[in-house]
Amino acid sequence: MVSCSVFITKGRRVLLAKENKVDKFGLPGGKLEFGETLRECAIRECREEIGAEVEIENLVMISQKPESHEGNNIVRFIYEARIVGESEQREMNYQYFNKAELEKIASDDLVRGADVVALARDFFDDKLVEYREPVVFKYH
């Protein structure tokens, strides 16, 4: 399964959405739909989950979870993005965390995904890298 997520920051804080079904915080994102590009998926999921219109900047991580808690093999593309508009319609609440707050919720096992924690730590340590995106070929 392929999924896409967005990594949004404000100053030196990281946005995480509260996933009520698992009672943890994670990045806004979800499954890639048929006919959708990775960027389109990330934008759609952000709109649905946190009610935000985003502008995608860079691909900052590609992670794989060969055995997810749902029994899937997941490859996740995580894009750095910035919010350019918001609405009140959203599935999840979100908040911004500074480094100490993120470390606290990570140590309390309240962050969904080791890749999320690793990416946030890279951000706080000024070590984010840009990955080359897959080339998109649309079938006509």
Description:
This protein is an alpha+beta fold and 140 residues long. The protein has one domain (2-124): Alpha-Beta Complex (Nucleoside Triphosphate Pyrophosphohydrolase), CATH 3.90.79. It has helices at residues 38-50, 99-107, 114-124, and strands at 2-10, 13-19, 24-26, 29-31, 52-65, 74-86, 94-97. Strands 1, 2, 3, 4, 5, 6 and 7 form a seven-stranded mixed beta sheet that branches. Helix 2 (99-107) packs antiparallel against helix 3 (114-124). The protein starts with a strand and ends in a 16-residue tail after the last helix.
- The tally of beta strands, per DSSP, is 7
Outline type = globular
Helix tally?
3
Counting structural domains, the number is 1
What's the average pLDDT? 92
Low-confidence stretches: none
Helical content class: 10-25%
CATH topology: Nucleoside Triphosphate Pyrophosphohydrolase
Assigned CATH architecture: Alpha-Beta Complex
CATH fourth-tier homologous superfamily:
Nucleoside Triphosphate Pyrophosphohydrolase
Radius of gyration equals 14 Å
CATH top level?
Alpha Beta
Structural class: alpha+beta
**H/E series:** EEEEHEEEHH
Percent range for β-strand residues: 35-45%
Topology summary:
Elements: E1 2-10, E2 13-19, E3 24-26, E4 29-31, H1 38-50, E5 52-65, E6 74-86, E7 94-97, H2 99-107, H3 114-124
Parallel strand pairs: 1-6
Antiparallel strand pairs: 1-2, 1-4, 2-3, 2-7, 5-6
Helix pairs in contact: 2-3
